[in-house]
Amino acid sequence: MKRLLILGGTKEASQLAIKAATISNVEVRLSVAGRTTQARYQVGVTRVGGFGGVPGLIKYLQDDAIDILIDATHPFAAKISLHAAVAAKELDLPRLMLIRPEWLLQAGDNWLEVDSIINAAKILEENAKRVFLAVGRQQIIHFAYIDNIWFLMRLIEPPKQDDLIPKGSVILDRGPFKLIKEKELLIEHQIDTIVSKNSGGDATIAKITAARELGIKVVMVNRPQLPLGERVNNVEDALRWLLLLKNALWCSSLFFFSQILLAR
Ligand SMILES: NC(=O)c1ccc[n+]([C@@H]2O[C@H](COP(=O)([O-])OP(=O)(O)OC[C@H]3O[C@@H](n4cnc5c(N)ncnc54)[C@H](OP(=O)(O)O)[C@@H]3O)[C@@H](O)[C@H]2O)c1
User: What is the mean pLDDT of the chain?
Assistant: First the structure.
């Protein structure tokens, strides 16, 4: 039996966990940060919450005898990816990154690309009046000091009592979002600019398409640097990698035991 830890928090991680659990002799564990309380997990063993930095992750990997690590976290969750890379290297564990493709600029798009949320906030001050902020609860504080812009903030869960939030309205919703609804929302609130992370994927792309069709600017936050290492961009390729690896590990275990028997 080989034990696989999937670092999740994405739709792809959950899909991979479900499919990997059907592979013989592979036991799957899925770990999520627990950023939303309403998340639905569909695989057997799931752990929620941080490990306690690299030392905590190393301890978990050792205590739970993990053989294989797949980092299928959100493309903006760069810290946990770095921790995974360091811990896997330390323990000599095979590690794969599953990273969904990013959205690409298309004809008709009006993107202002920035390399951080902080720079997104800076660039807005001169470029926008009514902004649709689709960056997640953790990041809205970066816009809270701006007082000459009205913000429409879409969050999965309501802000916490002591969260600092920008001037404007909060709506609660979670993807996937439909193009027609996104267009209605942008028109209803007279939005002139959207702020989005380049998360990629289908679930939240409708706002980007809507912006293109309505001639609305997008301040697009480019992805952070992720650690080096083997990577795939879809669940099927991650499964293929896993199967190949499992077979290779299986063969080396058989070879190891046959050597012991021969030596007797
Ligand atoms: N994490 C998600 O599920 C998620 C989903 C959607 C979007 N994002 C976006 O990614 C950006 C950074 O988010 P973030 O703070 O969650 O990530 P992060 O900055 O990479 O991670 C911060 C800490 O959260 C814990 N953590 C993250 N992912 C984990 C996992 N799969 N299992 C266990 N612990 C995990 C780790 O704590 P320890 O150091 O204590 O181990 C990690 O050091 C934000 O822009 C956020 O909106 C994240």
Answer: 93
